[in-house]
Write a structure and sequence with these properties.
The chain is an all-alpha fold. The chain starts with a helix and ends in a 6-residue tail after the last helix.
């Protein structure tokens, strides 16, 4: 089991470097390093930018939960809120008018 996890980590890390992650620069802000360090383990950081037009806060919450629960991403549960906050603040789609209407005062 340890050998499998080690091989997965090595392969994932190598794949990230092969994808030339140095070209992908996330927006500055609190949580950026958490996002970079956790997300790049499994996939290119450009996925964040590609999905940003489609995901609002609830979408990012669901996406992070899917990565943890379905794909077993090794994200510390204590970091989930900061990761979602960063993604929603810097890469979140504007909330739809329907979701604003459901919130008192439209906020």
């Amino acid at each position: 089991m340890r050998a499998s996890l080690f091989a997965f980590f090595v392969f994932s890390t190598a794949a990230a470097y092969a994808a030339d992650e140095s070209q992908v620069r996330l927006k500055d802000g609190p949580g950026r390093d958490l996002v970079s360090n956790n997300c790049a383990i499994c996939h290119s950081l450009d996925y964040i930018q590609m999905n940003s037009p489609f995901l609002d806060r609830k979408g990012w919450e669901a996406e992070v939960a899917k990565m943890i629960n379905a794909y077993h991403a090794p994200v510390d549960k204590d970091n989930v809120a900061a990761i979602v906050d960063y993604l929603a603040r810097h890469y979140g789609a504007p909330a739809s008018p329907a979701s604003d209407a459901a919130t008192p005062g439209g906020r």
